[in-house]
Every structure is written in C-alpha cells, then in structure tokens.
Amino acid sequence: MKIALRVAYDGTAFYGFQRQPGVRTVEGEVIKVLKKLGIIETPETNDFKGASRTDRGVSAFFNVISFVPSRRPDLVRPEVLNHHLSDVWVLGVAEVPDDFHPRFWAKSKTYRYYLVDEGFDLELMEECARVFVGVHDFSAFARLEPGKDPIRELKRVGIIRRHGYLIIELEGKSFLWEMARRIVNALRFCGLGLLEVEEVERMLAGNYRRKMPPAPPEGLVLWEIDYPDIVFKGDEKGIKKARREIFGRYSEALTRAALFGDFLLEL
Q1: What mean pLDDT is predicted for residues 38-60?
Q2: pLDDT value of position 88
Q3: Does 57 share its domain with 16?
Q4: In terms of Cα–Cα distance, which of 31, 24, 70 is closest to 50?
Q5: Virtual CA dihedral for 31, 33, 36, 39, nearest 10 degrees?
Q6: Which of 47, 55, 98, 262 is catalytic?
Q7: Strand stretches in the chain, DSSP E
Q8: Are residues 96 and 24 in the same domain?
Q9: Residue 174's domain spans which residues?
Q10: Is 55 a known active-site residue?
Q11: Residues 22 and 40 in one domain
C-alpha cells in the first residue's frame, strides 16, 4: 500500500522543501515525524517522494508527498500528524497505486505570486503575460540545472487585481528552478514601464545579454497540483485545526501588506 499526503507549509520557516543536512526543511520535518511514529524507517526504504522542490522562503497550500508505510498506517491521519508537525499541515490523505510518483503523475501545477501594487499599468502586464503562454525556451527566465531541458509549456498566466495588490497565477506542467519568480519580475518590470513586451519576446527567442532576476521568494505559493482521479480526504477536526493555524500565521502578514500597500498608494 502506498499513501500520498497533501501538505501545506510556511516556507519562511524552512530552508526549502528538499531535505538537506544540517538545516530545517519541509521534507526533513515530515520524515522526522513519520519515523518518530514508526510509520517509516528511512526515506529510501519506504520510497519517500515529493512533488515539487520549492525554494527557501516559498510556501505551499498544495504540495504532495508519497511513501509506503512499514507499519501503523492507521496513524496516517491529519489529526495525528498535525499534532506532531510544526509549520507543516497535512490537509488530506489518499491511497494511491504502487507506481504513483507525485511529480510525474501531476497533470499541472499552479503557482500564485502576491505582488504589492506599485501603480502598475495592468494592460501592459496583461500584454506581457500573453507572450509567456505556450511552449518556449525559458533559459532567460530560469536558473538552469545541468541536464535540464529549458523548453517548458505555460498553459495560463493570469493577473487578478485586488485592493492594494495583484495575484499572478502561473499554470504549467512543470517549472524550471526560479522560473515562476523570474516571470513575475518580468511582468512587474513591464507594468512599471521598465521593460518592453518586444524585449520579452526577444529573450524567449534566445536573444539576451542578461537573464531576468527572480522576484523575492516570500510572495510565491504553490497553490494547486492537479491529479486526475485522486481524491485527498481529511478528517474535519484535523483540517479545522490546520486552517486555524494557517489563518493565524498569514492574517497578520496580510494585514501588514494591506497597511503598507495603502501607504505606498498615498505617496
């Protein structure tokens, strides 16, 4: 039997998702709790896998971890795991096929970036956003790893205006390292009149001297991963507890962002 967990986490509390020696990571926190409860022995023995290796400072409301429990599958419940976890919340559990891999089975991923409105020209941003949709070489908008194909497909780039801030939504099958944050910065520069849409087109065509720098990681959230035919179920008591903690964590940050956003608009 293989089990998948839908997890949310506050990325500012970790040095990224992927486990690393000597630093606190999301995977490391989950593995520690699963071993403590006797559910797994080691990540290697129990086929422990993650869907998306988010960077340091990047949060998630929908990332997925899978593993094969050695024993005590009855303890793999949100209310039990959330009692032991810190800064990570299990929002759902699903029994999945033996060949399930959380990264390769994902039909698409959606990232959201929360951007304080600096007086952007929304029409220019939307024009720039349309350029990114489709299949492109994103070398100028990513931190490339050896052996990684820079060709990716963006299915959708949406811009939602709220009072004092914008939400940038990026949906695609897979993303390169820092790709989402660099695209967001390009949209920001376009909205401020610092970057022309034609320049973005040239960069996607491989004509550039410098890559686009990434936007700060704290504004980025892995919002959703689409898995056809897989339903993550959670105990209502455990989910309510997670919701209370998540709301408490982010409501203060949202209040401060709204306050300073209004202040900036008055300048």
Answers
A1: 93
A2: 93
A3: yes
A4: 31
A5: -70
A6: 55
A7: 2-9, 49-50, 59-67, 88-96, 108-116, 134-137, 151-162, 165-172, 220-226
A8: yes
A9: 108-222
A10: yes
A11: yes
Q: How confident is the model at residue 163 (pLDDT cuts 50, 70, 90)?
A: confident
Domain presence at residue 208? yes
Domain count, the chain: 2
- pTM for this model (two decimals): 0.88
* Residue 197 resides in a domain: yes
Q: At 204, is the pLDDT very low, low, confident or very high (cuts 50, 70, 90)? A: very high
Task: Give dist(CA 225, CA 93) in Å, integer.
Answer: 14
Tell me, yes or no, whether 118 and 101 share the same domain.
Answer: no
pLDDT tops 90 at residue 244: no
Q: Do 117 and 60 belong together in one domain? A: no
According to DSSP, residue 233 is labeled B
Q: pLDDT tens across 22-31, in order?
A: 999 999 999 9
End position of a domain, from candidates 59, 75, 105: 105
Residue 90: predicted pLDDT = 92
CATH of the domain at 115: 3.30.70.660
At residue 265, the pLDDT reads: 56
Domain closes at, from 54, 70, 105: 105
pLDDT for position 256: 63
Q: Give how far Cα 201 sits from Cα of 126, 194, 207, 215, Å.
A: 14, 15, 9, 19
Contacts of 32 (CB under 8 A, 6+ apart): none
Q: Are 124 and 188 in contact (CB under 8 A)?
A: no
Please list the residues that pair with 92 across neighbouring strands.
Answer: 6
pLDDT of 145 reads: 86
E-strand stretches of 107-253: 108-116, 134-137, 151-162, 165-172, 220-226
CATH number for the domain spanning 33: value is 3.30.70.580
